[in-house]
Specification:
three-stranded antiparallel beta sheet, 10 helices, Phosphorylase Kinase, domain 1, five-stranded antiparallel beta sheet, alpha+beta, Transferase(Phosphotransferase), domain 1, disordered C terminus, 2 domains
Length: 333
C-alpha cells in the first residue's frame, strides 16, 4: 500500500484548514499509530482536535463512512464514543491529494474533537461488569444494521486471504514456507466449521482495554473504531480477557452479568475464543506483510521478517493451534 511520505506537518494543517474552514495553530503533534497517521491539532482559539489520516488504499470511501455511521448510531444511543466532525460540505470523510514522486496520492482523513481520559484498568468485579455492559450496549446497536464494505471476521473470508497474501508476497523464508503451510492451512480448515451458523454483527474489532478510556464521572469511552468489522460478538469479548479460555471463566461470568443487562450473552461462542486468537496472529502477519516497506514500520519492527522472527512466529502459531478443540463438538462448552 502507498505510504505517508508526502504527508508533512504543513500538508496536515493545509488539508484540515481547507476542508473544515478553521484556522489552526502551527503546531502538529503526532500520536502513536502504526496503521494510520494521527495528529493533535488546535485552532487559533486553543480548541483541541485530533486528525486521523487513513492509510491510502486501505479502505474505500464507503468503508470509512460505514465506520462513521456505526459511530453515529452508537452516539445516538448514548453510548460514549467520539464522532467525527462534518467538514464544510457536511462530509465526515474529507479528502486531499498529495504529490508523491511522479504520482498523486489520494489521502482521506477525518477530524475529531479531542477527548482525554486514562486507560481503563479492569480491577475488581464491578469493573468487569461495567465493561460487559458497555459491550452489550454496543452489540445491541451493532446487531441492528449492516456494513457490507467492512472486513468479515471468519476463517473462510479472512484467513484464506491472509495466507494467500503472505505466500504471494514471498516474505516467508523458503525453507520455512512448508512449515508455515503445515500449521496454518490445516488449522483454518479445522476451525471453519466452528463458525458455521454463528450470527455476524457489527463489532468494534479491536476492543482491547487500551481502546477504553475512563473519564471519571463521565464514565467509559470507546475509542478507535478503525478496525470495525462484521463478525461474532465474541471477537470484542475475548480481546478484553487476561488469559486463555481455561484461565478466565470467572472473568467471562462477570462480563456476562453486565452484558446481559442489554442483550443475551453469546455463551455458544466461547468455543471461538482460541480460534479467534489464532486468526489474530495470522492477521498480524498479513498486516505486517502489507506495511513492510513503510519507513515507520521498519523503525517500530526492525526484526520483522528475519529468520529468527519467523521461527518465533511459527512456534506461536503452532502453540496456539494446539489449544484449539479438534472439532465443533466443543462449541458452547
Amino acid at each position: 500500500m502507498p505510504g505517508f511520505d508526502a504527508l508533512s506537518p504543513q500538508a496536515v494543517i493545509d488539508g484540515v484548514e481547507a476542508a473544515y474552514g478553521i484556522r489552526l495553530q502551527a503546531v502538529v503533534t503526532r500520536y502513536s499509530s502504526y496503521v494510520n497517521r494521527v495528529y493533535g491539532l488546535a485552532d487559533e482559539n486553543g480548541i483541541p482536535y485530533v486528525a486521523k489520516f487513513y492509510r491510502p488504499d486501505r479502505w474505500s470511501r464507503e468503508a470509512i463512512l460505514e465506520e462513521h455511521r456505526f459511530t453515529a448510531e452508537l452516539a445516538a444511543a448514548e453510548i460514549p464514543v467520539v464522532e467525527p466532525l462534518a467538514d464544510r460540505d457536511g462530509d465526515s470523510a474529507a479528502e486531499m491529494r498529495l504529490e508523491s514522486g511522479e504520482d498523486a496520492v489520494a489521502m482521506r482523513f477525518a477530524l475529531f474533537p479531542k477527548r482525554s481520559g486514562r486507560l481503563f484498568d479492569a480491577e475488581g468485579d464491578e469493573a468487569w461488569r461495567r465493561i460487559g455492559g458497555l459491550c452489550g450496549r454496543m452489540h445491541r446497536i451493532g446487531a441492528s444494521g449492516e456494513a457490507p464494505e467492512r472486513p468479515v471476521i471468519a476463517p473462510d473470508e479472512s484467513c484464506r486471504n491472509h495466507i494467500e497474501e503472505i505466500l504471494e508476497s514471498a516474505v516467508v523464508p523458503a525453507d520455512l514456507e512448508e512449515a508455515f503451510r503445515d500449521i496454518v492451512e490445516p488449522t483454518v480448515d479445522r476451525i471453519g466449521p466452528l463458525f458455521a451458523g454463528v450470527p455476524r454483527i457489527r463489532v468494534h474489532g479491536d476492543l482491547h482495554r487500551g481502546n477504553i478510556l475512563d473519564r471519571g464521572d463521565e464514565g467509559l469511552l470507546l475509542i478507535d473504531l478503525d478496525d470495525m468489522a462484521v463478525g461474532p460478538a465474541f471477537q470484542d469479548l475475548w480481546l478484553l480477557l487476561p488469559g486463555h479460555r481455561e484461565d478466565v471463566g470467572r472473568h467471562i461470568g462477570l462480563l456476562a452479568e453486565g452484558y446481559e443487562d442489554f442483550r443475551p450473552f453469546p455463551w455458544e461462542q466461547i468455543a471461538l475464543m482460541e480460534p479467534l486468537r489464532f486468526m489474530r496472529l495470522l492477521h498480524f502477519i498479513a498486516w505486517c506483510t502489507r506495511q513492510r516497506r513503510d519507513r515507520d514500520f521498519a523503525q517500530h519492527f526492525p526484526d520483522w521478517g528475519s529468520r529468527g522472527w519467523w521461527i518465533r512466529e511459527l512456534e506461536d502459531l503452532k502453540d496456539q493451534a494446539a489449544r484449539i478443540s479438534p472439532s465443533p463438538s466443543g462449541a458452547g462448552s
